[in-house]
């Protein structure tokens, strides 16, 4: 916890940087450190949490016009998650789908790992999630699924259309019967 305290002491200063990416990284790192600290002590609050939460709230609702609209949107989105992490210990849950599989990002540690892989691998991250043993091991996916073991082929458009038509017809008949019963009950026949 002393190591976390040491780093948490300096990170809030970076939240005032002019660079939006540095502010976001600092905020996400603070959330990560709070997550790690709360693994040791569930009630961990750190020093001067009120001031930190106030700064995070300002960043989560920043509307300065001298910043680009995209940067403001990105910053507000990120700092809403960071604020919830610091105040409530909440973690943004994200599901990454690739091929027939998916990875659930359910902690700040996992999010930072995924972000690092995205930065290094770029658009090839999905291919590596499917085939790369090391990347799959990091995310606990097991061995890659062989190409021949992919799920059975999807139903054709013709089959889907006929299935939907039959379902629609059955629904229409059921509604018609229900309407007939209601009219009998209302008229008292």
Automatic annotation (TrEMBL):
Pfam families: IFRD, IFRD_C. Transmembrane segments: none annotated. Residues 5-87 form the Interferon-related developmental regulator N-terminal domain. Signal peptide: none annotated. It comes from the Eukaryota. Residues 132-183 form the Interferon-related developmental regulator C-terminal domain. PANTHER family: INTERFERON-RELATED DEVELOPMENTAL REGULATOR, INTERFERON-RELATED DEVELOPMENTAL REGULATOR 1. This is Interferon-related developmental regulator 1. It comes from Magallana gigas (Pacific oyster).
């Amino acid at each position: 916890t002393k190591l976390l305290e040491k780093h948490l002491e300096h990170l809030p200063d970076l939240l005032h940087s002019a660079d939006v990416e540095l502010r976001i990284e600092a905020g996400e790192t603070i959330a990560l450190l709070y997550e790690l600290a709360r693994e040791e002590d569930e009630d961990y609050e750190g020093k001067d949490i009120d001031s930190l939460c106030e700064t995070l709230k300002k960043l989560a609702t920043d509307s300065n016009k001298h910043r680009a609209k995209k940067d403001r949107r990105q910053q507000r989105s990120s700092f809403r998650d960071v604020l919830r992490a610091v105040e409530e210990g909440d973690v943004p849950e994200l599901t990454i789908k690739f091929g027939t599989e998916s990875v659930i990002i359910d902690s700040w540690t996992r999010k930072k790992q995924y972000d690092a892989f995205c930065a290094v691998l770029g658009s090839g991250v999905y291919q590596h999630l499917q085939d790369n043993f090391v990347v799959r091991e990091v995310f606990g996916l097991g061995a890659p699924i062989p190409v021949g073991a992919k799920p059975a082929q999807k139903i054709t458009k013709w089959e889907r259309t006929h299935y939907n038509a039959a379902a629609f017809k059955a629904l229409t008949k059921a509604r018609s019967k229900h309407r007939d019963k209601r009219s009998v009950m209302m008229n008292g026949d």
